[in-house]
Specification:
alpha/beta, Rossmann fold, 2 domains, seven-stranded mixed sheet, 13 helices, 18 strands, 36% helix, 16% strand
Length: 383
Amino acid sequence: MGDNFSHCYSRTSEYFLTIIKMIVGSINENRKIESRVAITPENVKKFLDLGFKVLIEKNYAEHIGFDDNMYKTLGAEITEDKKEILANSNFIIQFNLPSEENLNYLNENQNLIGVFNPYSNKEIISSISKKKINVFSLELLPRITRAQSMDILSSQANLAGYKAVVEAFANFKKAIPMMMTAAGTIPAAKILVVGAGVAGLQAIATAKRMGGIVFATDVRMSSKEQVESLGGKFLTVEGAENLETSGGYAKETSDEFKKKQEDLLAETLKKIDIVICTALIPGKKAPVIIKEDMIKNMQPGSVIYDLAAVQGGNTAVTKADEEVDLNGVKIMGEKNILNKLPVSASNLYSKNIFNFVSNLYDKEKKSVNINLDDEIIKETLVK
C-alpha cells in the first residue's frame, strides 16, 4: 500500500506541478515606442482552454481600449508586480525585448517569445540564452505552409502596407481617383510601389481600390504575376532575372542590374505622384533605391512614404520619424507605423503568438516540448 501510495503521490505531485507551472505571461511594453500588446482579450480563453493560466500586468492594454476588467472577465489574472510575471511564467510573450532590469527576473528553462531583431540584439540575446532561457524570435519563422498561421511578418506587413498608403494619401494635396466634373477632369494620381512583398502587395491593392493608377517594381520576377493580378503595372529592366532567395526574400543585386534599375526608376519617378517604399533585406540595412537626384527631379507636391525607414530607408534622404522636404517633395517614414493601428495589429499578433505557443506545448503531457527536429522551433530559437 505504501509503495502504491508513494507512486500515486509522486504522479499526482508531478501533475500538480505541471499544472501550476503552465503560465503564459506578458508585461507592459515601453509605450513610448510600442502601442501593440501580445495578448488580446479574445485569445485569453484560447490559452485557458489549452490548460494555461494567463498572467498580465495591470493596465496592460487600457491605452488601446482593452481594460483590465475585460481580461478578468475572461479568466486572466492581473498583477502590478512585473517580477511575479517574469519569474513565474513558462512563456513570456512580448513584442520587444524587455529592459535589462526586467530580464534579470527571468529563470532557467523559461521561454521568451517576441520579435527581438536578433541581428541587432545579438549580444543581449546571447547573454539571455547562456542562462538557459529559450529565446524565440518570430521574424525568423521559416516560410513553410505549417508556419503560415504564426507568420507575424506577414500579418503585420499587411497592415503596414495598407497604412502607408493611407498616410501618404492624407499628405498628398490632390484627389486620388480620376474625377470627371462639369468644370473639367481631375486625373488619377500615379502611385509607384517599390518592393512587392507582403507590404507592397497590400499597398498596391489599397491604392488601386482608392482609384490610383498603380505601378510596382521588384527584383523578384516571380512577383510580376501577383502585381498584375491586383491591377498594377509591373516595371522591370530588360534581361531581369529572378533575384530571390530560397526563403522568398529579395537578394542583393549586381552593379550592372542596379544601374539599369536606377535608369528606369529615374525616368519613372518624374511622372509619379506618390511612392510607397517597402524593400527590405532581412538582417541588413535597407537598400537605398531612390537617390537624392531622382527625388529632385520629381514633381513638387509629390509624397514618398518609406516603410523601410526603420532599417535606414529606401531613399537617400529618409529620416525615421521625421518629415523631410526636398524641392517640394515630402519624404516620410516611421519606425513603427503600426502604433497607429494598435488594435488590429495586436489582434493579429496575438493569434500568431497563440498558434506558435500551441506548437511548443505537448497537450497530452501538459508540458513544454522544445523539439529541435521541428523546423519551426529550430529556426526561431536564437542561440
